[in-house]
Design brief:
- This protein has 286 residues and is of the alpha/beta class.
- The protein folds into 2 domains: 147 residues, Medium-chain alcohol dehydrogenases, catalytic domain (Quinone Oxidoreductase, Chain A, domain 1, Alpha-Beta Complex), CATH 3.90.180.10; 118 residues, Rossmann fold (3-Layer(aba) Sandwich), CATH 3.40.50.
- Helices cover 31% and strands 20% of the residues.
- It is built from 8 helices and 12 strands.
- The strands form 2 sheets. Strands 4-3-2-1-12-11 form a 6-stranded mixed β-sheet.
- β8, α5 and β9 form a beta-alpha-beta unit.
- The radius of gyration is 19 Å and the shape is globular.
Length: 286
Amino acid sequence: MKTEYIGLNFADIYRRRGEYHIENNKPYINGYEGAGRIVELGLAVIEHKIGSEILFVDVPFSNAEYVAVPEDKIIYLPKGINAKLAASIGLQGLTADFLAHDLGHHKEGDQVFISGISGGVGQILSQILISEGVSVFGSASADKKKAAALSFGVKEVFSSRENDWNAGLTGKFDAVYDGVGKTLNQSVSFLKNRGRVIFFGMAGGNPPQINLVELLAHSKSLLTGDLWDYLISFKEREQRSQRLFSYFLNNKIQISEPKIFLLAEGKKAHDYLEAGKNIGKVLLKP
């Protein structure tokens, strides 16, 4: 396929640092997510057509103008979902969908807290939960990010650069989504008895050790999972992506405009994401 937009994710930063596996190739080529059009087919391919608009979220060497995409990794784009939107919501949207529906299992009226709520996953996850009757709260690092989250229907957003509000949230939530990592103990303290922390990332650093005996004493749970244990076939990708796309096609979810860098400006893009300047997705464009 020829890529129109390439998604930049924290996983790419971890790979660059040597903290995540990266496919062996010289020179090293980062990136696993992109959207664009099929321009050439393998000799054995009969079910796909040149010109089709597609998305992929787990194909290596995607920081490139052309990417070889295995058949089972293809996600077709429906009318109304263009390549820029697809690359903006692909991996993070499928992650949010997986967190909400495979790990969250919320009921209407639940109160939930999301750390880093203005990021790509947080924006989509919060709106999925709100659409299903969940009251959502969260934290963000800057006033613009707090305003973005509130505009999507979040009840209250606290400053992640301050901690004077932490004690007031002790024991308040049915669930806490933590994609920051280093805030894991704080997330546990926010739970009601029988509540659960859903841990899905380390954007702020590695998580501390957790006292399992303390969790046991208050019937609190720690859940985590890997999206790739669920995206195991073309059919799974199709079903999950169509559910995700339906939120956007039915105007239940909106996202901030992505920040776009030229692919040749990859270092600037990585620096921008690492510095926490983004509200929503960072994209690379060949």
